[in-house]
Automatic annotation (TrEMBL), chain A:
<dbReference type="GO" id="GO:0031369">
    <property type="term" value="F:translation initiation factor binding"/>
</dbReference>
<dbReference type="InterPro" id="IPR045113">
    <property type="entry name" value="Rpb7-like"/>
</dbReference>
<dbReference type="InterPro" id="IPR005576">
    <property type="entry name" value="Rpb7-like_N"/>
</dbReference>
<dbReference type="GO" id="GO:0045948">
    <property type="term" value="P:positive regulation of translational initiation"/>
</dbReference>
<dbReference type="InterPro" id="IPR003029">
    <property type="entry name" value="S1_domain"/>
</dbReference>
<dbReference type="GO" id="GO:0003727">
    <property type="term" value="F:single-stranded RNA binding"/>
</dbReference>
<keyword id="KW-0240">DNA-directed RNA polymerase</keyword>
<keyword id="KW-0539">Nucleus</keyword>
<feature type="domain" description="S1 motif">
    <location>
        <begin position="81"/>
        <end position="162"/>
    </location>
</feature>
TrEMBL record, chain B:
<feature type="compositionally biased region" description="Acidic residues">
    <location>
        <begin position="68"/>
        <end position="103"/>
    </location>
</feature>
<protein>
    <recommendedName>
        <fullName>Transcription elongation factor SPT5</fullName>
    </recommendedName>
</protein>
<feature type="region of interest" description="Disordered">
    <location>
        <begin position="936"/>
        <end position="1003"/>
    </location>
</feature>
<dbReference type="InterPro" id="IPR041973">
    <property type="entry name" value="KOW_Spt5_1"/>
</dbReference>
<dbReference type="InterPro" id="IPR005100">
    <property type="entry name" value="NGN-domain"/>
</dbReference>
<keyword id="KW-0539">Nucleus</keyword>
<feature type="compositionally biased region" description="Acidic residues">
    <location>
        <begin position="9"/>
        <end position="42"/>
    </location>
</feature>
<dbReference type="Pfam" id="PF11942">
    <property type="entry name" value="Spt5_N"/>
</dbReference>
<dbReference type="InterPro" id="IPR041976">
    <property type="entry name" value="KOW_Spt5_3"/>
</dbReference>
Length: 171, 1003
């Protein structure tokens, strides 16, 4: 789910940048650091605006100055039970992996409808019912998130397509 | 032990009841009827019976012999009965042992009877027996009555008697055969009654059998744990050995409880009358700790000591482990339990190599030598083949001659004398060869027994449950989510609150109606842990996946499939082995090898660990091969040598943690992990292949950046821009005082020791290094080593301390008093300001380091850049010499050797980073200092091309080469340097610069 969220970030600045354009440095750094980053629970998609850049404070010992920047950003946070669209990245015999934004989702064979069978035709492994539904690499699927694991800077989830209206999207 | 007890028991009893002193080895004497009459009627008869029974046991072997001699138409049972009857007769009739052999024969019997008639007063005898008869009738069960009946008969009727007895025996036999049926029938008919009355019937004798005060006691002796059985056997041998001697072992029984892992290990128990008997019996037997006194077991604890632990009943389908042999430790499935309960046919996954590793020249296992003996097979030392189902095709390859097809069904084979059914080995074991308790089969082992394709699918859960029964204690912890899966409250879920014994208190979840929120108790056997798909769980035990963390993807009954975090594999474990995991994180391994460790595989091969699994390691060896190894295959770990140095393709130094790049091939880059011989193992964070590890030869990589440095290609290098960092960096290295070359000038000087134990001593320096000196003391003929800073130089003649003498010497200054270089400021005359020279007004030649040779000048001059103060003051600019120096430089016009001037540019460039400099960039400042500043020196614009060009290698090299220095300090140069002319404040000086050196850079 997407949110607009006010976040804070503390940026240290090297003394060599202490000049009138320090603010530009800070902003550039903020965008570079934060946009597209993953906090473990949420993904920062875009920074909308910067609300405030605090007065810098020199850190004793290093000479670097720290700026506290508060900014608004669009974040995406997955929830257990949420239905999301995903792009299949890899199909293995035990299930398939898909990407939902920056999050990797594994859909186990036990969470794939039984009529979708694992087949290796040619060199592309896929789950298919030999009719209209096929899950292979680069196909889009609709997934319900069953569980999320958070790590520092990464998220991982397992999902299910064993439900009505879930599974490969018709293109 | 049983026979041991039997052997001793009657003796003791009789000894006690009768007269111990007269104990005789002849059993026959003891139970004489007259004796029995004299004593209390009940007791002796009981004793007599016991004695007889025991003797019957003893003489069983002889009876066997008798049987051989006999016509042999009686079966064993009858024989024994007969034996007993014979005993009776023996005792009563006081016959010889010979009769044993002939008793069974009717004709002899007759003869015997007749013979007896000749010598014995039968009438009297009969009378006596008559008196006794009623009593025995009461006491003895039916079988013992036959002889008594016999006694009643007239003498001539003994033939009839024999027939009677035969009839009786037949009846008896029939009765025994039918006994079980009969029992079943009776139980069916009177079952209810039997239950009511049976209870008391069973209890009463139990209670009466409990030991009393007059019974023998049990003593406990300490012994070496694990040697209990050995001791008991030794004791038994001793008892047998001394049985007939004058000094028999007078203990009643001895036993031990449990094996080595039982709580009673290290103890043996001896039953005896007196403690002295125990000590005597055990004296001299190995492993018994005679130092400790025997401990008398309290009477109330004696029954407990002998309580028979119920051995686990083996059922078909249960899992066991093989204790020894080829399949030691392997899991087996009980296929058949023989009726005797000790022979068990076990189904095993065979470990066969089908002769593939066999030496074809080696003797086969059943080769028979000409002399008829089997040659002992020398067992080849090979690893045990992995467990794999039997495959007849493999067997046919080399061992077709050992392979036979089983009859009838198609998947039974006999191979090397063993039977394989459906790929499994069927092997019979004694129960002692199997481990029945603590089997703890893992799911993978169990799944091998499932012939299905993926094992876990069609697992025999019932059999597994049978094995796992009883091992469930402690599986539940407070806080676990649990579910009742049977019983009335089936389906109820909740969280365990408290676990005690086999009961778990559960706080029921909210969606269970009336029960919601209540705390109920449930037995452990009705509970299982509850997980939901997506739960993050950790394996806590019971399988090889211990400590693996993952997310639940599938739940079926109590089997949970989880996707591991570490390598995204699906594993199936029992829910009892799982716990909810709060933390993420991979499996913490107890392997002694960690990721990226360098390990020695064999004498010439090393490898870098790229994956640590629970049981195996993946290693990238020096030839870029990936190997999967067991930790045991690794000979040792190679310590990471942090200071190992190698040279790369360009001959540059390469150290651990340096960034390197492959010169050819894929041009992989990475950080050096290990340097070993001429191989470098590097780690690339970006790569996932082999965990980012790659290996190459030293000569095939180039160093991109040394540790701490950064690759040149990645944008602006702050370390270059930051004067603070630069000072310590490579650029500043030239600024440090160079090491003094040649002979230390302190040598030969007279010094005084200022500190330390030798304080006050005066001596002559004999040798010196940078910071220590060897001083030959004047007072003692001794050379001692002293820190230089603990010395002060004195005048050899006057003894006066020369202040700063040593420092000046080492700094290359003349022995003159070292005033701080004139920081007086711009107002000083240049000559004065030129520094530490005692007299600024000296001639240029003198100024050249006190008239020293150029070689000496190198000392001082070389240091000049470092001693910026010295140089700077020369131009009167407080700390801003850099800027002024240019003025100086220009003043020489075409002094070619003044390439050194660029050095000053470098220094000046640095100082532009100094905020002060920036502040002083105003014209006013410039004029205040030296006026020679040019706009090019403008503060923050310092990194102008002009600035940057200053530290170009060329400039540095010019400066650093001694040749430059030698050139630079020519008197003329120096001299003019110091002249006021050196401060031209007009722009002109710049145009006067030597174009080769400065022109391009300061454009």
């Amino acid at each position: 789910m997407f949110f607009v969220k006010t976040l804070e970030h503390r940026i240290p600045l090297h003394p060599s940048y202490f000049a009138s354009d320090a603010q530009q440095h800070i902003l550039a750094k903020l965008y570079a650091d934060k946009e597209g980053s993953n906090t473990g629970t949420e993904l920062i998609i875009a920074i909308i605006d910067v609300e405030d850049i605090s007065e810098p404070k020199v850190v004793p010992g290093t000479g670097q100055a720290e700026y506290d920047v508060s900014y608004r950003a669009i974040v995406w946070r997955p929830f257990k039970g949420e239905v999301v669209d995903a792009l299949v990245t890899n199909v293995v015999s035990t299930g398939f992996f898909a990407d939902v934004g920056g999050m990797k989702v594994f859909v186990s064979k036990s969470m794939i409808p039984p009529q979708l069978k694992y087949t290796v035709d040619g060199s592309t492994p896929s789950f298919t019912d030999n009719a209209e539904q096929t899950v292979e690499r680069n196909s889009q699927v609709r997934i319900r998130i069953k569980g999320i694991r958070s790590e520092i800077g990464a998220m991982f989830a397992i999902g299910s397509i064993r439900e009505d209206y879930l599974g490969p999207l018709l293109q | 032990m049983a026979s041991f007890m039997n052997q001793e028991f009657p003796d003791e009893e009789e000894e006690d009841d009768f007269n111990p002193a007269q104990q005789d080895d002849s059993d026959n004497e003891n139970d004489d009827a007259p004796d029995a009459d004299d004593d209390d009627d009940n007791v002796p008869s009981k004793n007599a019976r016991r004695g007889r029974d025991d003797r019957a046991g003893d003489e069983r072997s002889s009876s066997k012999r008798a049987q051989d001699e006999d016509e042999g138409d009686d079966d064993d049972d009858e024989e024994e009965e007969l034996e007993e009857e014979e005993e009776e007769e023996e005792e009563e009739e006081e016959e010889d042992d010979d009769d044993d052999d002939i008793e069974g024969q009717p004709s002899r019997k007759r003869r015997k009877k007749q013979r007896r008639n000749q010598f014995i007063d039968v009438e009297a005898e009969v009378d006596e027996e008559d008196e006794e008869e009623p009593e025995e009738d009461d006491d003895l069960p039916g079988e013992e009555m036959h002889p008594d009946d016999l006694q009643e008969l007239p003498i001539g009727a003994d033939r009839d008697d024999r027939k009677h007895r035969e009839l009786d025996r037949q009846r008896e036999a029939q009765l025994q055969v039918d006994a079980e049926e009969e029992a079943a029938r009776l139980k069916e008919r009177y079952g209810r009654q039997a239950r009511a009355s049976g209870a008391t019937g069973a209890i009463v004798p139990q209670r009466l059998l409990l030991p009393g005060a007059e019974d023998p006691r049990i003593w406990r002796m300490k012994c070496r744990p694990g040697k209990e059985r050995e001791i008991i056997n030794a004791l038994r041998n001793r008892t047998i050995q001394y049985a007939g001697s004058r000094d028999p072992v007078e203990i009643i029984s001895a036993f031990e409880r449990g094996g080595t892992n039982s709580p009673m290990a290290g103890n043996i128990y001896v039953e005896a009358r007196q403690v002295a008997d125990v000590e005597k019996a055990l004296n001299g037997i190995n492993h018994v700790f005679m130092g400790t006194r025997p401990f008398m077991v309290p009477m109330e604890e004696m029954p407990d000591l002998l309580k028979v632990r119920k051995t686990k009943h083996l059922e078909e389908g249960m899992y066991v482990r093989v204790r020894r042999g080829h399949y030691q430790g392997d899991l087996g499935c009980v296929d058949e339990v023989e009726a005797n309960g000790t022979d068990i046919v076990v189904r095993l996954v065979p470990r066969l190599d089908y002769g593939l590793n066999e030496d074809s020249n080696a003797p086969t296992m059943d080769e028979i030598l000409p002399n008829g003996q089997k040659r002992k097979r020398i067992k080849p030392i090979t690893a045990r083949p992995p467990p794999r189902l039997f495959n007849e095709n493999d067997a046919k390859k080399k061992h077709a001659k050992y392979l036979q097809k089983g009859a009838l069904t198609n998947n039974i084979w006999t191979y090397q004398g063993k039977e394989y059914v459906d790929g499994f080995l069927m092997e019979a074991f004694k129960i002692s060869g199997l481990q029945i308790d603590d089997v703890n089969p893992t799911l993978e082992e169990v799944s091998r027994f499932q012939s299905g394709e993926d094992g876990a699918g069609n697992m025999d859960l019932q059999s597994l449950a049978a094995t796992l029964k009883g091992s469930r204690g402690g599986d539940f912890l407070p806080g676990d989510k649990v579910e009742l899966f049977r019983g009335e409250q089936r389906g109820v879920t909740g969280r365990s609150v408290q676990v005690y014994g086999d009961v778990v208190k559960i706080k029921v979840d909210n969606n269970h109606g009336a029960l919601s929120g209540q705390t109920i108790e449930a037995p452990i056997k009705d509970l299982r842990k509850l997980f939901r798909e997506g739960d993050h769980v950790k394996v806590i035990g019971g399988s090889k996946y211990t400590d693996e963390v993952g997310m639940v993807v599938k739940i079926k009954d109590d089997r949970v499939t989880i996707l591991t975090d570490s390598n995204q594999q699906e594993i199936t474990v029992f829910s009892r082995d799982l716990r909810e995991a709060e933390d993420s994180g991979g499996a913490t391994s107890d392997s002694k090898y960690a990721l990226f460790d360098l390990v020695q595989l064999d004498a010439s091969t090393v490898g870098c660990v790229i994956k640590v699994d629970r049981e195996s390691l993946r290693v990238l060896d020096q030839t870029s091969n990936i190997r999967s190894l067991l930790p045991t295959n690794i000979s040792n770990l190679i310590e990471r040598r942090k200071n190992a140095v190698a040279t790369d393709r360009d001959g540059n130094e390469m150290k651990v943690d340096d960034m390197i790049k492959e010169y050819s091939g894929e041009q992989k880059s990475g950080r050096v992990l290990h340097l070993h011989r001429n191989f470098v193992f590097a780690h690339d964070r970006e790569s996932t292949e082999n965990a980012g590890v790659w290996v190459s030869r030293n000569t095939n990589v180039i160093t991109v950046a040394a540790k701490g440095g950064r690759a040149n290609s990645t944008g602006v290098d702050l370390t270059k821009m930051n004067p603070a960092m630069k000072r310590t960096g490579a650029g500043a290295a030239g600024m440090a005082p160079p090491q003094q070359k040649g002979r230390d000038r302190l040598i030969g000087k007279t010094v005084k020791i200022r500190q330390g134990p030798n304080k006050g001593f005066i001596g002559i320096v004999k040798d010196a290094t940078a910071d220590i000196a060897k001083v030959e003391l004047h007072a003692k003929n001794k050379i001692i080593t002293v820190q230089k800073d603990m010395l002060s130089m004195i005048d050899a003649n006057t003894g006066k301390v020369i202040e700063g003498g040593i420092q000046n010497l080492s700094l290359g200054r003349g022995g003159a008093p070292g005033k701080t270089p004139g920081y007086g400021g711009g107002s000083q005359t240049p000559a004065r300001g030129f520094g530490s020279m005692p007299s600024g007004g000296r001639t240029p030649a003198y100024a050249m380091g006190g008239g020293r040779t150029p070689a000496w000048k190198q000392d001082a001059g070389g240091r000049t850049p470092g001693y910026a103060s010295g140089g700077q003051t020369a131009y009167g600019g407080g700390g801003l010499g850099g800027s002024t120096s240019y003025g100086g430089g220009t003043s020489y016009g075409g002094a070619t050797s003044y390439g050194g001037g660029s050095v000053w540019g470098g220094a000046g460039g640095q100082s532009t980073w100094n905020p002060n400099t920036a502040g002083g960039r105003t014209p006013a400042y410039a004029s205040a200092n030296s006026g020679s500043k040019t706009p090019a020196y403008g503060g923050l614009e310092a990194p102008t091309p002009g600035f940057n060009s200053a530290p170009t290698p060329g400039a540095y090299q010019d400066y650093q080469t001694p040749g430059d220095f030698r050139d630079a300090p020519t008197p003329g140069v120096r001299n003019s340097y110091q002249t006021p002319g050196g401060f031209p404040e007009t722009p002109g000086p710049y145009s006067a610069e030597t174009p080769g050196d400065f022109g391009p850079r300061y454009d």
